[in-house]
Each structure stands twice: as C-alpha cells, then as structure tokens.
Fold this protein.
Amino acid sequence: MKIYTLIIASVLFAVCTSLIGAEWETMDTIGEPVARHEAAFVEFEGEFYLLGGRGIRPVSIYSPETNSWREGSPPPVEVHHFQPIVYKDRILMIGAFTGGWPRETPLDRVIAYVPGADSWEWGAGIPAARRRGASGVALVDEKIYIVGGIVNGHVDGHVDWFDEYSPESGEWKILPRAPHKRDHFQVGVLDGKLYAVGGRLSSIKPGVSFSDVVPEVDVYDFERGEWSVLKTLIPTPRAGSFTMTFDSKVVVAGGESGAQVQAHDEVEAYDTRTERWTSLPSLQRGRHGTGIFLFGGHLYTCSGCGNRGGSPELTSMERFKIE
C-alpha cells in the first residue's frame, strides 16, 4: 500500500513539475485577428474562432495548418459577454449582452454562428424572466446549463439562477439556485460536476466596479442534483477570467479586479483529486474577456483586454504546452 501511494505521489509530482517548468509562448502568426474583448475564443473542427465582442466585429478564424488568420462574417447584432458552446455544427451564444456600457441588454434569443456556411442565425427565444448576460454556460449530455449572470448590464440585478436549455426542443427548465450570485465568469465541467469559478457583483458605483469579486467556488453535482461550495477559495479572486478543464484540473486564467490596473496574468488550477490549488506559469500578457481551450497538447488563449475595463484590446495569441 505504501509503495502504491509513493507511485501515485511521484506521478502527480511529475505532472505538476512538467506544467510548472513550461512557459506560455506568444505565437508569431500570418496576419492577426480583429482585436476584441468580452468575446469568445473556441476551437471547432481543428480551427480556432474568435467571435463577438463589444461593437460589431467580424469573426476571426485561425488555421493551425497554415498558421494564418482569415476573416469571417460579422454578427447581425452586437453580441458580447458570453461563454460559447460548440453544439453539432454550430457555435451557440446564450446568456449574452448587446448594446453599450453600462446598461447593456440581455439578448432575448439564442444566437448561433455556423462555421461551415460562415453565417449567423437566430435560435429559440429565452424566457423573459430568465434573460441575463455575463453568465457561465456549459454543455452536458446534450443539454446546456446557464449559471448566474446579471440582468441590467453593469448596473445591478446579479442573479444566482441556474437553468437547463435543450437546443433540440428549445425547452427551458429552472434548476436549484447556485450558492452565490456572480457575473463575468466562466464555468467548467469535470467528472459529472460543474464548477462556477471567479466573477464579481458588477456595479457602476465608485470604487465598486471591479472590486466586489466572488472568491468562493460553487460546484453542482449532476448525479445528486445538488450544489456545494469548495472548502478552499480561488487563490487570486478576479472577474473576466476564462476557464477550462482537463485531466483532473479546473484551470482559471486571466481576469480583472480592483487590485491592479493591468489585467491579471495569473493561471491557477484546482486539482479535484488532491483538492488543492496550484499556480501555473503566468501568461505573457495579462488579459480578460476571452476564452481558453486545449488543442494538440497545448492550452490556447487569444485577444481580450490588457487592462481592467475596455482598453487596450489585444490581438496576440498565446499557447502553453502540457504534453
């Protein structure tokens, strides 16, 4: 039993060492994407897509095969503050905002981008009483789950709502409320559990806009149908961060807070086996309001904003080798 424990510990140490020993690399690409923030960065069938953001921005598409960017079509409306969902042949945007700061308006319908046709289309309507933006969104077993968000742009109306949406039928179901209200965050799903990490209670009140962050991590167990809260807080509380999962880890990168003007470059991982947080190498450039994903043995992130607030918008793409 002791030998088995030592072997497991050695493997875990090797994994952590390989992650910590690496560094993020700023990529030199042919062309560059359209700068944007409060947008989405996602992989679809081997290509990378930057979608949405403040203003009406055309889709930026990156091909790893040619190391080059090309431009896709713009959305029919301004769409921002959303976590994208790849579903079949579409990239869905739910729980998104449109319009300008500080009273952005939640979209009343699902909107989708179809990569194969480079086109946009409207989907099912969202119940009026459940509309919000800056939510965390995840796909689990053909259903889409929407957590938290804020109703009235950056003014007020923070919610702890938790909904289930069927992209096939358009049906919405109200589920048990999350333990904490939060907006400007992303969720990750791992081993049948949803992790709501980061975020804040946005406000236009002086001194509060970026500082009212939520350090607790809420966890929903799909099998039990119950929420819980992790015993440990996220080491660097911030909003506008981006989240993904791999192996046993929930990774949270970037973000913004009242603690500093420059966007956060921290990358932190919660290991669900050890129940501990680990600091991974920092991003080359702090950023918030974008996405992160795993592709070909690397984590990728791109674009976003370099300082808290709305400028400067970035065009750089970074990657981090994990294999």
